[in-house]
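# step 3/5: fold
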Amino acid sequence: MPGILYLIPNTLGQADGAAGDPLSHIIPQQVQAVSAALDYFVAENAKSTRAFLKLLSVAHPLAKPLQEISIAELNVNTPAAALPALLAPILAGRDAGLISEAGVPAVADPGANLVRLAHQHGIVVRPLVGPSSLLLAVMASGLNGQSFAFNGYLPTDAGLRVKRIKALEERSRLEQQTQLFIETPYRNGAMLEALAATCLPETLICIATDLTLPSESVRTQSAGKWRRALGAGEMPLFHKKPTVFLLLAQ
């Protein structure tokens, strides 16, 4: 009988919970217990997963010593042909955890391909509760939470990025739908400048940075106000920090 594929939530950054349980503020106790009982993980990044397991072990003894826990990597460079081998231990009866580098797996994450394959093989998939930067950003933005869409990364080419922003703004206006996207953290400033310069003055733009962390910041205002703030040299403190961008056309 196949094992179970658990979808394990990770932190969104440096954990700062209680000394006896550093994950207590963001990962529920039941989720921590399930995660600690596993000895096979498929991870976007093995190094960050080991760091997560080390924090987990403070309050919950691991199934095996950390160096004996199996961690196989699955990232954007993993070919589809490699997925069956990652699934093989589960098909042989071993429970496993799928874990992203940050947040929840299989959302804006290559793990979705493994989950799809697991369903094709009749493997039970159990998602566990944890932080999603996208949902947290929608919650805190004040924008439309009834209809929203995540668009991944926008083009890095300036011209193509402007076209994409205009297309998303028009879609938002027609459907009254909040549009979400992310950017490589060191390009956050360029993205906000492009949004402020491209969007109509009344379009609402939210930037949500370092969610769940002590440095968390969420700010929503019109493109016109962002344009004036940037013109006055008031750039948010989000350089090289994970940020979710949202817009809603009026």
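# step 4/5: annotate
The radius of gyration is 20 Å.
# step 5/5: archive (pending)
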